[in-house]
Fold this sequence. Notes:
Shape: elongated
Organism: Blautia hansenii (Ruminococcus hansenii)
Domain RCK N-terminal: 1-117
Structural class: alpha/beta
Radius of gyration: 22 Å
Strand content: 25-35%
Strand order of the largest sheet: 3-2-1-4-5-6
Protein name: TrkA family potassium uptake protein
Helix content: 25-40%
Low-confidence stretches: none
Order of helices and strands: EHEHEHEHEHEHEEHHEEEH
Distance between the termini: 47 Å
Amino acid sequence: MKSVLLIGLGRFGRHMAERLIAEGNEILAVDINEERVNDAIDMVTDAQIGDATNEHFVESLGVRNFDLCVVAIGDNFQSSLEATALLKDCGASLVLARANRDVHAKFLLRNGADHVVYPEKEMAQRLAVKYGNDNIFDYIELTEEYAIYEIPVPDTWVGSSIVEKEVRKKYHISILATKEAGRMNPLPGADHVFRGAETLIVMGHFRDVRTVTKVK
């Protein structure tokens, strides 16, 4: 369990709070908007109305006591930048900030953010890969070149085992799991026999995965 300071209770902030709570973490949520705070007060551990660009208010939060500080402000970049800098000045050990543009990310990183996320950009890229390819059902980017994909079993693999197809040696991908009828089978053994009704959760370079999706 981690203690998290979450600043900003817009759509992204609320979704982040819901997931963090579901993972068993404690959250102090802060927003300048009273209505947003009231809407979230039953969901988070604690909530406060306040201006995260005010130095005295940020100091009063005891920033050093949190394992993670999240700046989820999306509608005011200047406020996001000031809040990020103040958190770091007050001793925050780890600051995660939201950015909408590349230039915003650069300024956030220069002003104290340890990590920056692009929720809209990342989701758009994921959906573009997922819906722009007939043989890719899902996609999670790890780096610019490597990702985790959900793909169908090539027709010529059906009835053969992982070791028989020499998947890692020939295709340079790792099979993390198989999935059938909504049920996941993680880390299948080398003797796993491919079935046409299942899909594969694989990790690899995007070129290698695309090669596999074209195997007949």
